[in-house]
Amino acid sequence: MTGAEESSSGRGSLPVYFDEDANLDLLDDIVSIIGYGNQGRAQALNLRDSGVDVIVGNVRDQYWETAASDGFEVLEIREAVKRARFVMILIPDEVQPEVLEKSVLPVMTRNKILCFASGYNITFGQVTLPDDFDTILVAPRMIGVGVRDAYENDRGFYAFIGVHNNSSGMAMQYAMAISKGIGATKPSGALLEVTFRQEAELDLFNEQCFGPAFGQVLTTAVDVAVEAGYPPEAVLVEIYMSGELAYTMEKIAKMGTLKQLELHSPTSQYGSMSRGIRYANPELREQMQKSLGEIQDGSFAEEFAKEYELDLEILDDMKEMAQDVPIVVLDKEVRKKLRFRSDK
Ligand code: NAI
To answer: Which of 66, 199, 283, 330 is the most buried (most CB within 10 A)?
Structure first.
């Protein structure tokens, strides 16, 4: 753990690593990117631009074509795993168990390194791995296009890294090397060492607690303002459609929650700080704890595995029903009226 800086908050001792801790020279053999979607394409391009020898393993679909047209050698997954020392699993979590069992694990040998971008399948027991090769985690806290965009602009990003099996004794060094190759440790980026379980549970917590609770807050605010008689077009623009909210969130990430307040007027600062406490809601905390409990005890993963077996039937129904929710209907009408263009 040389070079790791420990958190100074006093709340824990999470090791954090930076560019100088990572050694790109460790990636001195072929890296196989399995899957060429959101993360796969971005990470493959970044690693290649970092000077690493990259090939792609994919099924024969349109992603295969994209990888080939980006100039990569593309092979069937099994062949790509055989050829490489570093194998990066960048296909959706729900298809990983089958692909691993059929095309990856039979050809994983002792000196190879298996790298995941999500701790989900290992944490919730969807896959069990032998411990005779290294299994590591490099999970960017950034969507794929952001991973590529950051690299091209010489910016880093945060990534969670971790070790599940350390058969070589070098697993954490390999995780850092891969992180450096994909550009995470460029300026403003850092690597946070977590367990596979912490990564998987926090990711689900964000998706199932913060995200939907925030959605409810947004919907409630729209309802209250529209019911009070304000023009819906003005309400949607005011609350989220202008993009100001996204801009503010970016400032919160860059400056911190309190410091970014300074970008707003004194009226705004006084109003939001003096009224903020009204929305502190004990029930919200309880509901989040309930969802977190279902994540931690594995019942969500079990529920989702059943849903996946049913071809995501419930998810499709929920998406269908959501089409009629008032804010969704209103959103479509307002977008049309304001000549919204998604490409601009
Ligand atoms: P994706 O949905 O973009 O993956 C598409 C790729 O998966 C394509 O190459 C496609 O050919 C392949 N694929 C799809 N079904 C397949 C099957 N049945 N058999 C073999 N290959 C199949 O995946 P994404 O979003 O890039 O996620 C990859 C991994 O990265 C996941 O573990 C995810 O949790 C993790 N991750 C994703 C982030 C994101 O921003 N999307 C952020 C951080 C981690």
So the answer is: 199
